[in-house]
Amino acid sequence: DALRIRVVSWKAGTKGTVFLLPGRTECVEKYGRAAGDLIQRGYSVITLDWRGQGLADRALPDRRTGHVEDFAEYQADLEAMLDQAAREALPQPYFLLAHSMGGAIGLRALMRGLPFQAAVFSAPMWGIFMAAWLRPVAAVVTAVAPPLGLGRFYAPTTSQDCYLLTAPFDGNVLTTDRAMWTYMRRQLQEQPDLSLGGPSLTWLGAALRECAALAAMPAPKVPAICALGTLEKVVDLPPVHLRMASWSNGQLDLYPGAEHEIMMEGPSVRSRFYDRAAALFDANR
Q: Is the pTM of the predicted complex or chain greater than 0.85?
């Protein structure tokens, strides 16, 4: 659709290729170390900056607003990523590793029958976390905002501020590991164009619709692991537990003491995560 996205690949391991789908606000740079961990376990890796974030084209004049009209736009990005992997002759089979918002995009991809042999999810956004009383309000506001010309405004409680650059380490909801917190912050400090603030009302409405649509569909018949920290405070937890309880060849893997960014936690958590991901991929080559 004439928008430019950014794709980066590491053609290295020969066991297959891991399609790493980042979350909202994220960029390719954040997953450099993750790529290294997967390469050490025998896999090539491809990842991307979704439209509207990182160095991909952004939809609005205020580049700090996360915005799409519909989550189907992210499927177009994923299809372009698959095309690029084919052009580069990245090794098959293909596997999925999806974090947060990428978890919603990845689940939709599996339900569409895209060619992934197994999937690992990290704190997937299968529901939007908000107070119960706010849910009906959010549904109404996100429905009426676009026709009134307000769809590009920031969603309630969010702003142009980038969480990583404004929140202190103590009490943050992403990671308990200070070294990885510093690693993620430094990338945004050195390249400010990578940063992103809150989502638009239109994005929020699209996300609510997508999560509801996914929840109404049966689990795909693809082997999967869903990793979730016991201190998770970013995504809505009940939809994750409900989904994994109904996934016949899926497993919920809990990480005691970990927060939202399991791939950005301490060395022991990261090693366990990548070992289990590689074991699932190895078993389904």
A: yes
